[in-house]
Queue: 2 jobs
Job 1
Amino acid sequence: MAPSCSCSVVLVLALRLCVVPARVATLDDELRFHFDCATRCAAMTPSDREAIKAMYRAAGCDVGGPGAHPVCASSMEQLCVGSCGGGQQDMATFLPGAFGPGAAPVGSEPFSLALQVHRDCAERCASEGVAVSADSGAEKAVDTLRRCGVVQLLGAYDLTALDRFQKAFDQLKSKEKAYKKLLDTKQLHDGRYQVYLPFAKPFSSRETLGVSDLVLEVLHAYFMTSGGSFGIDHVSVLTSASGSANQSLHPDVHYFKGLSVSVHTALHDIPSSLGPTYFCPCTGESLTREDWPASAAIKMRQGCTCDPG
């Protein structure tokens, strides 16, 4: 899978990091269930994988590619844990090799250690913060991004360039017919919508999009472990209308750590009074097969806690 960068040109600048609840330092029933699912999904047999391939075909992935359906952008293991965690599938019947009576039992000791490592990581990121000044250079920003899964770059954008982008976008909005074709009101919810930008002038240059040299340097360094190069998956402008309801916690990036980054740029000053954006740090899925089940289980758990202050 080629590394990709999905660029959304709006972000609430007031960040708030959350950590998993203290009780998650031990394995509760929910975490045990998710870890069991992920471990079994990592051990799917060839016949199990054929059943997953049938899901891809049913979704049209073999014809339409990764963009044909949300299913198409997921790995086999991710589809498996989605089916298992959703509770809508009899997994022993669907994937008998991994979930049937003859499947090997799953122990919890490796997960207990991984869970403590995750909690230490999350608490450090929440304590130290993820804001990095542009004057600090790319190295610190990349380290924060790799470790915490999120970084906020302060002073990394040319405000004049962002103003030019806003004017270009306003011109696009004035072309009602073209704008309507690019408008998406279905994928987002609770008063939010987005506009996919066409790959055409002036939106075909990173300068117009406000992507500074520092941002580019951070992305290149972050993707170095995956080959050092990357491509843009899509660029959209997100708008959250006044009075929008709170969104549930969700992953912007559904891929594994190191393979995809979601880049957000604020077009307007957004103070904390408009509502913060919450992040659960250190919750990305590991690319290492041995570490993936634990990371997937932690990611599947819905919820982390934040200091209301």
Note: Residues 4-23+108-287 form one domain.
Job 2
Amino acid sequence: MYKSQTPVSIGDRIISVISYVTAGWVGLIYMVILYFVRKPASLFLRYNIFQSIFISFFYFLLCMIFGFISNILLQIPLINALVSWFILLFNRPIIFEYSAIQSLVTGLYIYMSIMALMGKFPRVYWVSRIIDKSVR
């Protein structure tokens, strides 16, 4: 985990939070602007922007793969009932009209946004190690 020697600016915190909320798009645009202005981004900002982009892309990819696999399995006569039940189980509204998967992802984004707003590096088990290596 990174230990910040200098306090994180409020601008970096706000951009990090907005990056998590917008699935990394604002952070990506901000990094492009910083590139053209030739201003280096802080370690905190790079970490949070890369993590938000990585998690959003990973979630999108995971949903696409599971959707593709479930569409194939729904064509098999004896397995389609089990697959339909499994899909319904995970997509049924549980908390505030969110499904279990949506609740977990929303909770993860809320956690990361709050930690970024506090000026700390949000840690996600497997993802943060990958981001640590790429941000150096």
Note: The radius of gyration is 18 Å.
